[in-house]
Structures are given as C-alpha cells and as structure tokens.
Amino acid sequence: MNKPLRKGFMAPLCLVLLVIFLALPGVSAASSKLTFAFSEASPPYSSSSDEKAVGLFPDLVQLTFSFIPDYTTENVVLPWSRAQYNVRQGLTDGLFTYPSKERLSYAIFSALPLFTQDFGHLVYSADNPNRNAIESATSFADLSRLTVIVERGSKWEEDNIPDYLARVPGQHLNTMMHLLMLRGAGDFMVQPAEDARFAAQELGYSNKLKIRKVDFIPNSQIPFHIGVSRKLPFAMEVIDQVDAVMRSPEFQSQQNTLIENYR
Question: What is the pTM of this model?
Fold first, then answer.
C-alpha cells in the first residue's frame, strides 16, 4: 500500500477504534475513577487496615458514590497533613472533612454535610464520686468544682471549655480515657459519643463508660462534607451529583443506618 493511501485508510480506522475504545466499560468518561484520601490514624472515623481505608468516613463516601454510576472511587490512607496536601496539589481527587476557609481555597465541597460530629456530650465513669453533679448539670457553671480532662493543644477545647474549670491534659484520646477511667485524674471529658465508645471498647472500659448528651456546650456541631480538588477539571460536576444524591430519601435512610451502626 503506498504512503498516501495508507494515510487515507488509517485516519478513519483510528476514529473507529477510538469510538470502540471509549464505549468499553470502565473506559468512557461515564465511569471515571476518583481517589479519596483519608487519615490513617483517626478511628473510628478513618484508619488503615491492611493498607486499606476503614471506618465511618470511607464507608460514607463509598455509600454516596454507590448512588452515582458515573464514578467509581478508590481510597488511600495517609498522614492527615499529607492527605490534605495531596488534594491541594491535585495529586488526589477528594477528601471528607470540615470545609474550613483554607480548605475552601483548594477544594469544592458538597452543599450539605454528610456527617455532623457532635461534641455535645459529657463522658465520665460510672464510679465517679461526682456522678450526680455531672448528671444534673445544666451549664458549665454547675461543673465548676470538677476537673475536665482535655487533649493537649486542642484549639476547640481552649475556645469552648471555660477557663475556670480545672484541667488535666492528655496527649490523645486513649491517654485521656486512661486518666478518666483508670487513674481518676479528672471527672469528665467533652467528646463525641462515637469517639468515647470506640476508645472505651478498645481499652476495656465499656462497662464503666457513661455518656450524657447536653445542650450547653458551644460550637459542638462540626459538619463534615465531601470535597473535591479544584484542580480536577470536572470537580463541579462531581459535587453537583453528590448534592443530588444527598436529597434522595433512599440515600438518607441508608446514610442514617450507617451512622447509627458506629454509635
């Protein structure tokens, strides 16, 4: 075949092959893969097991995209600072977190939260001698004689737990739980119920754990949204579909069931 004839034959052939290729399952734009980054050390919300992301947050993201056939998802687990950096740089497509001002600069978030973390709980031991005071308190002032166990360096606790309460700091939640349940170093903690139950179960304190929901803790509701990197060319399209799914009664029912399973 001479060169001009070969060129004339190859052009339409390449076009046909391209159409066939795009029509194959998993190849068309209608089945794009999105990679979401999760923290490797934030159980029960997300952690690493056999190098896979496990926990409530990966489960919620997976549930959401099970309602969106245009996309499949893949999860990676990283140190949280690295996970955020990767989304900022467009190395990873998405994340699931609180849409802070800084994060809004590099990611587009769903209009509504997929999960709300509730710090409006007092966590204490059934053996605590001040149990009656904790269970009858209607304000922080009613707890002014007691000692709260806090996480060292927690900005949220600094801003929302009054200075007049005596404090005992712990490095992380497991340490705080030991201080509360084993050593009796303080009377109570302010924590989400999911976090407290998970830590108590892991450390063998479930039988002594008490959790009381209260309404006097400021800024206790922290919303978590699905976010997609602004460097992703079709980021807004993804978020539009996420928002549409979240309005579905069927999705909301499965979402509530999933969250309750972690509580």
Answer: 0.76
